[in-house]
Structures are given as structure tokens and as C-alpha cells.
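Structural prep section.
Before we set up the soaks we want a predicted structure of the protein with zinc ion in place, mainly to decide which crystallisation condition to try first. Input record follows.
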Amino acid sequence: MRYAIISDIHANLEALEAVLADARERRCTHFMCLGDLVGYNANPRECLEIVRALDCPTVKGNHDEQATLAKTSGEFNEMAERAMTWTRQQLTEDERSWLRELRLQRQVRDFTIVHATLDTPAQWGYVFRDLDAAASFTYQHTTLCFFGHTHVQCAFIRDEGTRRTSGERIHIEFGKKYFVNAGSVGQPRDGDWRAAYCIYHVDENLIEQRRVRYDIELARQKILDAGLPRLLADRLALGR
Ligand code: ZN
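Run finished without errors. Recording the C-alpha cells verbatim:
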């Protein structure tokens, strides 16, 4: 049994389609979505429709939350806010209410999914350092938890201490805990422009971090055509 874990799609249709094609090619039969379906890029409705059709466990991200508000709460920077204002105008009430009803964290089989952190999931903190991960581990009651939000693919392993790995393959060992960031499908920020996602090989106790090439030029052109900030198109190519 193989799960494809997708996070931070951010309305990038080209990246989402490429990731799903790659996952199906690799015989993934189950999917999970870690939130931030919308924001930044130009196809929020199309991405929402695809994820809803997958009918998979999905948790809420901060951009999903913002998209359901009538107006800005002032938490975003100017560029993110401009994209969010545009996104709010695109979505239907049905789409907004679907996003509104998403939960902040879920347990799926014997693992957990969350967008940002397990210690304070509603505050949207970022887990970059071992110390941040250690706080989440305190609230992690399953061996394995998948998260997103930073747009940086990596994993934290808890045994005697907490350590970070950016390895492509992680073997799940008994007695340890794993807090795994699936990276971002639609706006990676680790210097690699390719779409990121992760495969959980349940029967082999193996996690595989993957990168997939997609039609980035089309995604960038759509951002410009929609009148969204040019910087959003530029950062896709930089992976920042
Ligand atoms: Zn995000």
C-alpha cells in the first residue's frame, strides 16, 4: 500500500497534475493533503476540484483559512495578501465552505497529518529547527506525522534527541518518532524549482521524498495573465 502525501499546492495546477501523474505511475493508491490548496498561484478552483475528487484526508492550511474570511486579517505580507484578495474573488461560496470545514489535524490509520505544528496548530508556527520539531514531538502520539507549511522537504527524527535529515529515503524504525515535511507541490522554497511530494510505502516502512518536473513556464504565464504580482512568477523559477 502506498500513500502519496501532497502539501502546499497553492493553486499551481501544472505542478499538481505532474505530481499526481508521478504518484499514479509509482502505484500510489491512496492520497493525503496537508493543506494550503490555494494562494500565490493562478488556479485555485481547479486545484480544489482535483483534491476534492481525490476524496482523501485533508487538513487546513493558513491560506485555506484566509481564503474563507470575508476580508484580510492582516497577517500576510503584501504579496501574499494581493494573491489572497484575488483568490477570495475566484472561489464560490461552496468552495469556501468546504475549506472552512477542514480540520487542523487528523489521525489517518496509525499516523497523523497537520499543516504547521502539533503543539499549536492554529497559530501556524514554522518548524525549521530541531527545537521547533521537539515542541511538536511532545504532542505527537503516533510514530509518524506528516506536515508542510515551510515548503522545505525534510524530516525530523526523535530517538535520544531530535535531529533533522534531508535524505530522500527514510526507513521507519521501531521506537523512534518521525515528523516528516512533504515539501511543497506548488511553490518549493529549498532552491529546487521542481514540485515536491512524498510517498509513504506502508508495507516497507519507508518514506520516499520525491521531486517532479512540471510545465513551470505555463504556471508562470498564468500568474502574469491573472494580474498577480510578477514576483510570484519569478520565485517559482528560483524555488524560493
Ligand atoms: Zn504554504
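Observations: Helices lie at 13-25, 44-54, 62-67, 78-90, 93-100, 130-137, 216-225, 230-238.
Flagged for discussion at group meeting.
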